[in-house]
Every structure is written in C-alpha cells, then in structure tokens.
Amino acid sequence: MSSLESVQQAPALGKLPFRVGIVGGGRVGGALARALMPHVAWIVVRSPWRRVQLRHAEKTVPIVGSLAEVAVLPELVVVAVADRAIGEIAVTLARRFADQLAGKTVVHVSGALTASVLAPVSSFGAHVASAHPFTMIPEPDPAWLYGAVWGIEGDPQSYTRIESLVRMVGGTPYLLGPTDERRKALYHAAAVLASNVTTEAIALAEQVAEAAGIPASLFLPPILRATFDSAVAALTRGEPIARTGPAARGDVPTIERHLAAMDRNEELRQRYRLLMAALLGTDGADRAQQLAR
C-alpha cells in the first residue's frame, strides 16, 4: 500500500438528497464535480480551456461560463474559486438570485477565509459556511479527496447538507466551532506547513540530490516513506514526532559543510540556509541567526 493509499478511504455509497451547483472548475472544483456526479446541477467555469476539459469528462452536466447563464439554484452551492474572488462571487449570487437564496446553502472551500466573506448571500436568507478539505489536491481527481478531514465553520443550519456532501466524497467532517479570522488563519497555516512547506523541502532535496550526482527517483522515495510513516504513526499515538539529522542534534558544523558544498548554486545555498536556520529554532538561536545571514 502506498503512502497516499494509507490515508485514503473509499467514498461513501448512496445518494445525496439534494443537488449541487459548483462555481469553479480548478483542482478542488473539478475534483468535487467528478466525485459528486450525478448530483451536480451545473458547473460555472470562467476559463474556456477548463470548460472544454470538463465537458470531455462530464458530458451530461451543463458547464457554463458565468452565473448569468444559470437559471435555477440547487439546494447547495459550492464556491471553489481563488480566495480573492469569493467575495465577488457572493455579490454576484446575491444580485442574480436575491430571494431565491432563502433556505439555500452556500459554502466556500477556502482554508484561510471564514464564512463571513459570504455575507451578501446570507442577507437574503442563505445559510453560509466554509468547508475546507485539509489535504493536498494537486489535480482535479476525486481520489485526492478520499480520506481528507474537512474543517467546517459557519451557520449551523448549513451543517447537515455539508456533512452529507463531505461523506459522499469520502471525507470526514469536523466542526471547527466558533471561528474568527485569527483562528482560521492559524488553521490554514497548519495545512500550509503540512503540505506546501513539506513539498518545498522535498523539491529542495531533489535539487541537492541532483547536484550530488545521485538519482533522486531512487534515493528519495524510501526515506520519504519512512519519514511519512513515522510521523503519521506518532500523530496517531499522540507522541512527539521523531526528528533526526544535524539540525535536531544542533550539529551546526555539518550544516556549514553542506553550505560550503553548495557554493556553485547561490539560490540553492540560500534556500537551504534559511531552512536549516528555521529548524535550529530557539534551541540554537545564535547559530540559527548566523546561518540566516
């Protein structure tokens, strides 16, 4: 079983008792569209290229370029667009549908923003929430949704529909409770550290392996699997995650030896220096400061 498979689960069987509209055809919107068929009423996708892509995969669902082409709202609308566009979509929904929004559920999938960004539709009686899949979704494939925990906050009257949707795509709903902007930002920062920072470190390791003249495809997968499995086991047991290597030992001379060997690639050297300084943390504050210069 691969590391990905070990944290996934099969999607729930059965049917949703309502229809879903999806605004956005990117990685999350596309994955949801494929996972929720045949419960999708329509998909709004601005990009012509993505519309063509989705039409090849989903031939029976209306895929349109704007909300102006949508006549009827289903019970649940998922807003799966970039954070900066969520407020704009909320305003468009409010202007376009007004009283039709009463009793409907509108949810966005941003990890960084609270449900309050959907205030324009809540003023017309819609139940609003945010439901964020706490996972990595590198492509619009529903397999990446399986096993994910979804952080949910907002109007409690929206929870029943959202929980049904999350379970339908193989996820686990988790109610965050009262959530202000600070708490939501911290929640999202945890996801960034677990995913984005991890993948950046792996990409850096790949570059250094190439500089060393060793095949990254051979050397890195076993150590990554061991690291991942160890960390997941520790988290499951509620134990500290094992840390190894020179930063964990405070072995600054070894780190400096690494840096000296990177003298032919200043960008690589700088990225490694900053990462090691962060790993040394407060325990090696003075040496970390020296490395970060």
DSSP summary, beta strand count: 8
Which architecture of the largest domain would the CATH scheme give at its second level?
Answer: 3-Layer(aba) Sandwich
Order of helices and strands: HEHEHEEHEHEEHEHHHHHH
Structural class: alpha/beta
The assembly state of the depicted protein chains is single chain
Bulk shape: elongated
Tell me the fraction of residues in β-strands, as a range.
5-15%
Classified by CATH, the class of the largest domain is Alpha Beta
For CATH, the homologous superfamily of the largest domain is named as NAD(P)-binding Rossmann-like Domain
- CATH fold-type name of the largest domain: Rossmann fold
Helical segment count = 12
Backbone CA Rg: 22 Å
What is the domain tally? 2
Helical proportion, percent range: 40-55%
**Residue-averaged pLDDT:** 91
Biggest sheet details? 8 strands, mixed
Roughly how many Å apart are the termini? 43 Å
Trace the largest sheet across and list its strands.
3-2-1-4-5-6-7-8
- Unreliable residue runs: 1-13
Task: Produce a short descriptive summary.
The protein is of the alpha/beta class. It contains 12 helices and 8 strands.
